[in-house]
Automatic annotation (TrEMBL):
NCBIfam families: rrf2_super. Coiled coil: none annotated. The keyword DNA-binding applies. PROSITE patterns: HTH_RRF2_2. This is Rrf2 family transcriptional regulator.
Length: 139
């Protein structure tokens, strides 16, 4: 399941992409428009900034903006920044692999094979640039 943190991070990146006329945007405005608890959003923005997906601009007219071209940002990147691995079970993660304690043989584990197939179909979709998302912009 997609965590609220990941969902809010995705909403934040999409908001910044969809509203270049407002950039730089205050965290308060993002929180209000996207219905994200402000304190929660501040922590998410800190993570996004640390991983160079957004940048902050100080001052009275400051706020947040994307740190790179939206064509270079994917949902998978955002999810990994806020939640870590995308894999549904740790033994199929390519970047955060962990053996399952109860597994006797990964090669014959039917659950591992099933979720490896799910991952192989899901990750390429999540790796697409956010600019390719069919998202209806609000009026």
């Amino acid at each position: 399941m997609l965590s609220k943190r990941a969902k809010y991070a995705i909403k934040t990146i999409l908001f910044l992409q969809d509203h270049p006329e407002l950039v730089p945007v205050s965290a308060k405005l993002i929180a209000e428009r996207e219905r994200i608890p402000y304190k929660f959003l501040e922590n998410i923005l800190r993570d996004l900034k640390t991983h160079q997906l957004v940048k902050s601009i100080r001052g009275a007219e400051g706020g947040y903006t994307l740190a790179k071209d939206p064509a270079e940002i994917s949902i998978a990147q955002i999810m990994r920044v806020v939640d870590g691995p995308i894999a549904l079970i740790p033994c199929i993660s390519e970047r955060f692999y962990e053996a399952c304690a109860e597994c006797e043989d990964e090669e014959t584990c039917r659950i591992r094979h099933l979720f490896a197939e799910v991952r192989s179909e899901m990750v390429p979709i999540l790796e697409r640039p956010i600019t390719t998302l069919a998202v209806k912009k609000e009026g």
